[in-house]
Amino acid sequence: MDNIYYDNYMYYCEQEAEKMYPEIYYKLSPYVKRKCEEYDNEYNQMMNPFPNRELINRMAEEIEEEYNNDYEDLKKLGENNNLTRQRRGFGRDLITILLLGELLGRRRRRGRRRRRRRRPFGYGGYGGYGSPFY
């Protein structure tokens, strides 16, 4: 049985958590969503059931290039970060994480949609057969 109060509370918690995301998330998110809409459709067989690592890296590279054309802060973030001593910068890793999260969320939402309860008989709330107050 669905608990509408729990669902509303979880939605509230998600909204409050999203307010705490760093500013870079709000800048990158439209680029990631746009790229997912471009690639992730039912006619693109490379995306089904899930894309391989090469395609994810190519998508992340395209997002990084588009973002760098508009903003400069991702370049500075990658240059100033001493934690990453890899070939790729911190910005590309962040884009890849956001990209994977968006793709997983798109696949998860289809099966996790909240189902509405239907009462088999009567009109709920006004008495009669099937009413919780009968």
Q: What does the model show?
A:
The chain has a domain at 24-105. Helix 2 packs across helix 3 (53-70), helix 2 (23-39) crosses helix 5 and helix 3 (53-70) packs across helix 5 (90-111). The relative contact order is 0.11. It is built from five helices and no strands. The protein is mainly α. It has helices at residues 4-19, 23-39, 53-70, 73-80, 90-111.
Query: Could you state the oligomeric state of the chains shown?
Result: single chain
Overall pLDDT level: 77
- What global shape is seen? flat
**Can you write the helix and strand succession as a string?**
HHHHH
Write down how many β-strands occur, each being a DSSP E stretch of 2 or more residues. Answer: 0
- Which structural class should the secondary elements be placed in? mainly alpha
What's this, in brief?
With 134 residues, the protein is mostly helical. The protein is built from five helices and no strands.
